[in-house]
Structure formats: structure tokens, C-alpha cells
Amino acid sequence: MAKSNGLFGFSFGTAVPAPTPAPVLFTMGRKEEPEGGTEEKDPVVSLNDTLGSKEVPSALNDKKETNKAFSFPRLSPGLESPWRVLKWTEEQRTTLMKNISSYKPSCTEAARVLLLGPVGSGKSSFISSVQSVFNGRVTNRAMVGSFSISFTKKLQFYKIRSLRGQQPDGLVLCDTMGLGDSAMTGPTLHDVLSVIQGHVPEGHVFSPVQPVNLSQTLGYRKRPSLEEKIHCVAFVLDAVKMSSYHGSLSSSFQQLREHISELGIHQVALLTHVDLVCPETAQDVTNVYKSRVVQAAINQAAALLGMSSSYVVPVKNYSSELDVDHNTDVLLLNAVDHILQYADLYFLDNSPPPDCETP
Predict the structure, then answer these.
(1) 171 located within any domain
(2) Does some domain include residue 139?
């Protein structure tokens, strides 16, 4: 029996959208309603609300609260002891690369990880940065843009290769259209869940007026295999834009997370551009886990997503650089290793039948 979402006007588990009411789109700051409906705008969430606290910002609980100006806290000249421990040695970099290169999930060729986040959060840049680590030089594997609307329009799968000319590793990073802030710039909740369930083929171009369904989506998979499904979801948020994310984005994310969890998919989060919010981290990325600004931003991201801060890891993507950097590599590889740990939980939770052989 299909489970109806109600709010979004779609029945999950079926391919045909409900005729009425018109679908509400999953957007960054609000829920878009059909013409003639009402729209309620929410206050901006301030990073100041979480400085020194792990509680959900008051703006998420009190919609009458006025917007607060954002300002970074002053750091003491001497940075504090790390609040997370990460080894920055060449040995650690080598170990992480070896673990990722040799990773092979059970009963399928690769773990598929879907990156989800607002427009411009750094999803495509993360994919290119990870591949750059293994290439030994900065390359733009996934095309990126700097527009206010999503540069990525279609579902794309990127098989990470540790060595040129060899078979890809057991990791596929899936890039898709960014979650938008208007009725015409983001995918529907129905489409996102269809991707996770494996119904949507690679190359599908998303349209807010044409939801994924059996009769109209070319290549629609009615009964997707384990290999075609998503095995982990990584939410991607921009540390620079944390102050501009609207309060209702939290309820949207948490609603989405609830549906994803019902499918048995574990979720983590990446916080990008941490070097742009902390001068000390920009100067030396090894300061990332000593920075109170980054720690506060991670707590804020966790509150926004409704998850523990232990699921959130900071990331510095390659952007203007031409050459890779040892410490940036370690931070990126640590994020990939973090993701794979939760992808493994999916395979543990969905044990293969006895006759399934490990590839």
C-alpha cells in the first residue's frame, strides 16, 4: 500500500502523482503553494543563536522573532585545543586513500551516495575535489557554476577512480539539481525520493511541472535493483550562507529526512567553505577543528537538519587552486571515509540473501 505524503500531493511507492491538489515543491525557505494560495515567509536563522550552544536556534521555534544580524565571534589570538582529533600526517593521507580505493560493498559493485543541498552549497565542487585528490591535481570532474539557480539540471553519477585507466572504486557520488528557493528552481520531494528508491535513470532532467512517473519518465525503473538504489544521503550546506537560510528550511529538511529514514537510508552532512568563515582555517586548514567559528557553524547545521553534530563534517573544496594540498586532501578524504561508514550501515541493515556473492 502506497504511503501518501499529503502535503506534497504525491503517493510514495507509486509512479503516478495525485491529480489534486497541485504539488507543493520542496524549496529552501518555504513551501510553494498553488496559485491562489497563501505564502508565509519565515525569519532568517542567525548563526549567533548557536554560538556556545548546541540547541536549536530560537528562530526555528518562534516565527515572530525578528531577523538578527550575523557576525563572526572574535577568536582569541591563540586557538584552543582541537574539539575533534584528526591526524594530518602523510601516513594518514595514504591510509585514507588506500581504504577508499579498496572499498567494496557487499553484494553490489559500488555504494551510491546522493548529495543533497541548496543551490550553490558545493555539491558538484565536492565531487570534483574528491576526484582531484586521487588525480594528484585539481580537475573539474563535475561542472560547477556560480549562478543563483542550480547549474546542475540532471541526475549524474560519478564513479570515483583512484588510478587513471583502472576500474573505478566502490564509490559513486550522485549529483542532482540543487534545492531551490522558488517554485521553479528546485526538485519536488517526490522526485528526490524517487531518485533514492532507484526509479530515476542517470541523465534525467528534472522539471518542477513534470514529476517522475512510470508513464512519462524515459527509462523509469519500476523495480530497481539494490545496485540502482541510493545507499547513503549526504546533505551539503554552505557555512557562508548559514545566516541566510530561512527558518522553515529546517522543517523542510527534517520532513525530507523523515521520509529518507523510512526507506532505511542513513544520512550525514558536509559543511563546505569553512575556510571562508574562519581566517585561521583559511591560512592553515589544520586549524579547522580548533576553530570556534567552524564548531558553531557545525552545531548550526546539525540543528537545521535535525541531526547530531557528530554526523556533520567540515570540508574545504578546491576552487581557485591549480595544485592539490596535503592537508586539504586529508580533510576531503576524511569526509569520504565518514560517508562510507554510514553507507556500510545500509548494507548491514539490508543483509544480502545467502546466495548473493560478494563481487
Answers:
(1) yes
(2) yes
Distance (Å) of CA 14 to CA 20, 63, 217, 223:
15, 35, 13, 11
Residue 302: all three cell numbers together: 546539525
CB 235 within 8 A of CB 265: no
Residue 132 lies in a domain: yes
Grid cell in block for residue 308: 547530531
For 209-244, write each residue's pLDDT tens digit. 788 888 888 889 999 999 999 999 999 999 999 988
For residue 275, the enclosing domain spans 90-350
Q: Is 192 left (phi over 0), alpha (psi -120 to 50) or beta?
A: alpha
**CATH number for position 185:** 3.40.50.300
β-strands 25-26, 31-32: how paired? antiparallel
Residue 5 lies in a domain: no
Comparing CA positions, the residue from 266, 268, 271 lying closest to residue 242 is: 271
Sign of the C-alpha dihedral, residues 153, 155, 161, 162?
A: positive
Query: What phi and psi, each to the nearest 5 degrees, are found at residue 272?
Result: -90, 170
The domain tally of the chain equals 1
pLDDT in tens, 59-89: 334 434 434 434 455 544 346 689 999 999 9
Amino acid at site 278: C
Stated pTM of the model: 0.77
DSSP assignment, residue 177?
Answer: P
In the chain, the amino acid numbered 67 is N
